[in-house]
Write a structure and sequence with these properties.
Blueprint: H1 8-13, H2 18-27, E1 36-38, E2 45-47, H3 74-85, E3 91-96, E4 104-109, E5 114-118, H4 121-136
Antiparallel strand pairs: 1-2, 3-4, 4-5
Helix pairs in contact: 2-4, 3-4
């Protein structure tokens, strides 16, 4: 695994989106495969992550240049939870709404005791995942 070069403060302050997703993709050893979505007409297909269109474009060397939306899509964030679950790490996800001006989610992987905060559940899960990965090094 490549070394994650961010510290806790940087992980907590990076906003949800492509920057956080890129870091998670690296930590999760994402394989850079395109996720081709087929449209209803059966003619137009494209990669959800980078926009690659197989009928109209040559593939980029090295695979997909986009990243799965781990920090904004609960389905992708849940893949991270399932990965940690295989290592006997269980997730506690709490929605805190009476602790300040803005409600937020708190995600904690119980065995590593690493937690992350976020405005959305996927954001909190990705931060907790990164912090748990940092501890493994």
């Amino acid at each position: 695994m490549e070394r994650i070069t961010m510290n806790r403060q940087q992980i907590e302050t990076t906003p949800a989106g492509p920057d956080l997703d890129a870091l998670v993709a690296e930590a999760a050893k994402w394989d850079h495969n395109h996720k081709i979505r087929e449209c209803e007409d059966g003619f137009y297909n494209y990669c959800e992550y980078c926009g690659y269109e197989p009928r109209f474009m040559e593939p980029e060397p090295g695979g997909c240049t986009g990243f799965p939306p781990y920090s904004t899509d609960i389905d992708k964030a849940w893949e991270l939870v399932e990965e940690r679950h295989q290592k006997r790490e269980y997730l506690t996800l709490t929605y805190l709404m009476d602790v300040g001006p803005t409600p937020y989610y708190l995600a904690e992987f119980r065995m590593s005791k690493k937690w992350g905060e976020g405005i959305t559940a996927p954001e909190a899960i990705t931060r907790a995942y990164l912090l748990a990965k940092l501890e493994e090094e």
